[in-house]
Amino acid sequence: MNLLMVNDEVITVETMKAEIEWETYGITKVFTAYDVEQAKECISRNAVDLILCDIEMPGENGLALLEWIRSRSMDIECIFLTCHASFQYAQKAIGLGCQDYILIPAKYEEIGNAVQKVVNRIREKRESVKIQEYGNQVIREKVESAVEGCEKTCPKEVVADTVKFILNHLGASDLSVNKIAETLHFHPAYLNRIFKKEKGTVISQYIIGERMRLAARLLETNRMSSHAVSEAVGYSSYPSFNMTFRKYYGCAPAQYSEQQKRKT
């Protein structure tokens, strides 16, 4: 993670840069800027993950810098340092998505711990995005596999469209036969009948099976909690997900994840 310190007090910045053991708190590189313009230039030229920024500075202040960052949709988190416990400042900082607000003078350990918390949140957020992308890729592969080679007769096309819709909406808690039938403009009974003829199972059971297989794939990564996986595959009720998963795999989701971890 790369950190940018922004403060008009040069000695304070250089001292903090030299004396705080940044690597201990998850920071590999530290940039410095002594006003908002220098900070903008640094951000434009370098990959910055987190800014540790004074609020009150000559010219534009730290809040203006964070507004500039947000207006450009940059994925940069912020911790503000200030010597004034102003409710107005705090309210605006929170509104801009500031991760922390530290009153100075503060101990280096306090600053470092605040940085570590934000670093951890950034890592968790990025890991969650990766997991979501992984899940979407799994679904895309299933869609392609289901559609590929499908004969162009009417019932087969309808079933292929049904499978495609299911795989694209596994994470929707309201996914149902009626919803699919309404979207594809068929009567639910007819859709279920031709689906069972082609797939050997009714649509509701097919949905459950695909959700359980996707849940297992996500749990095998050991990067998501069981509750997070439950929501990702369309279960608003964790007990319901837990019970269904046990029926399919003979153990609770957390146990399954642990078993996969021991295999690696």
Description:
This protein is α/β, with parallel strands linked by helices. It is 61% helix and 9% strand. The protein has helices spanning 10-19, 36-45, 62-71, 87-95, 108-147, 154-168, 177-184, 188-199, 203-220, 226-232, 238-249, 253-263, and strands at residues 2-6, 29-33, 50-54, 77-82, 100-103. The protein has a five-stranded parallel beta sheet, with helices on both faces. Helix 5 packs antiparallel against helix 6 (154-168), helix 6 (154-168) packs across helix 8 (188-199) and helix 9 (203-220) packs across helix 12 (253-263). The longest helix is centred in the middle third of the chain and has 40 residues, at 108-147. The protein is elongated. Residues 149-153 have low confidence and may be disordered.
Structural class: alpha/beta
Mean pLDDT, all residues: 86
Overall helicity = 55-70%
Strand % is 5-15%
* Biggest pleated-sheet summary: 5 strands, parallel
Please mark out the parts with pLDDT under 50 across 5 or more consecutive residues, or reply none.
149-153
Helix count equals: 12
The topology string of helices and strands comes to EHEHEHEHEHHHHHHHH
